[in-house]
C-alpha cells in the first residue's frame, strides 16, 4: 500500500511554523538567538494590538448596524409630536439662560442715574 504523497494545507503550515521556530529558537550565537526571540515577541505584541483594534472597529460598526436595524432608523419615532412642547422647557424660568439673557421681563432696566 502506498503512502499519501499530496500535502495538505495543515501540513504545509505546520512545516513552515516548525522552520520559523527552528530559525528563532536554535542558533549557535547566544546573542543572535535572544535578539531573534525579542524581535518575535515584539512582532507578536504588535500583532495582538492590531488585532484588538480591528476587533473593536468591527464591534463598533456591528453595533451601529444593529442599532439601525432594531431602531428602524426613523427619527420620528424618537420624538413624539404630542409630547414636544418647545415653550415649556427648564430654561424658560431661568433668567441666566442664553435664551433669557436679554429678556426685559427677567432683568429690570435701570436709569443711568439710579445711584443718585
Strand content: under 5%
What characteristic shape results from the CA principal axes?
Answer: elongated
**Number of discrete helical segments:** 2
Distance between the termini: 121 Å
Strand segment tally: 0
Largest sheet: none
Q: What percentage of residues falls in helices of 4 or more residues?
A: 40-55%
What is the residue-averaged pLDDT?
77
Q: What is the chain-wise order of helices and strands?
A: HH
Protein name: DUF3742 domain-containing protein
Keywords: Membrane, Transmembrane, Transmembrane helix
Organism: Pseudomonas paracarnis
Overall description:
With 116 residues, the protein is an all-alpha fold. The protein has a domain at 34-70. The protein has two helices and no strands. It starts with 8 loop residues before the first helix and ends in a 45-residue tail after the last helix. The mean pLDDT is 77.
